[in-house]
Each structure stands twice: as C-alpha cells, then as structure tokens.
Design a protein that fits this description.
Layout (H helix, E strand, L loop, with lengths): L6 E6 L1 H20 L9 H20 L9 E6 H18 L7 H19 L7
Antiparallel strand pairs: 1-2
C-alpha cells in the first residue's frame, strides 16, 4: 500500500465540520473577490473561476456543507490542514476574545486542535 506523505486523514465531529466549512466558505468568498473577472470574461478567467468553485465545492461536499449526520473523515494536504488550524485559532482569539468562556470560541479552538493533531500525528510542522 502506498502512503502519500503530503496528505493527512482527519476525522471531525459534526460541530468541527461546521466550523471548518464556515472557514472554507469565507476563504472562497475572499478568493472570489480577487478573481478579477472582466465585464466579458475570457476563457482563462472562466477556467480560473471554475477551478476555484471545483476546488472549494469538493471540499465542502466532503464536509456535507457543514451539516453532516455524523463524524466525517477527510484526506487533505497537510499544509492545507495546518493553514486552517492556524486560521481557526486566530479567529477564536480575535473574534471571541471578549468572551473566553463562550461555547463558540471553545468549539472553534477544539476544531483547530483537531486539525493540528492530525497533522502532528503525521510528523508535519503545525502552525496552530
């Protein structure tokens, strides 16, 4: 059996999947804003936007758009998981810093920890 050293399998609870899906949708929105489509998009612009939608759509489908019936397991690039772990930790600290005991802050940090642990288990450096 061939093991891909760049991919990591992470299992998320439904709550964690919801938070990761939210972060993915936010990242898609930010990348969409910078897609720079002209008034009459050319082939390259359409292909670039289609690639963006395909990439994020696949990831969101794997997460059942943040509403899975149970735990979900994902195979994802280690650097991508590490990046989302860092982003979720930052979001928890910046957006929920005024209420350190809030349930949502705890959930977001828990999601970041789950992602970081999956990468750490593979011996990869973790940004979270």
């Amino acid at each position: 059996m061939h093991v891909d050293p760049e991919n990591v399998v992470v299992t998320l609870t439904p709550v964690q999947a919801r938070h990761l899906a939210g972060a993915l949708r936010l990242q898609l929105a930010l990348r969409w804003e910078t897609a720079e489509l002209g008034p009459i998009p050319c082939r390259e612009e359409v292909e670039r936007v289609r690639g963006l939608l395909d990439e994020y759509g696949e990831q969101l489908e794997r997460l059942d758009w943040g509403e899975p019936a149970g735990d979900v397991s994902l195979r994802w690039r280690a650097d991508g998981i590490s990046e989302f772990a860092w982003e979720l930790r930052q979001a928890a600290e910046e957006c929920f810093s005024d209420s350190p005991s809030s349930e949502r802050r705890r959930e977001v940090l828990d999601t970041a920890r789950a992602l970081a642990a999956a990468v750490a288990d593979r011996g990869q450096p973790v940004a979270a």
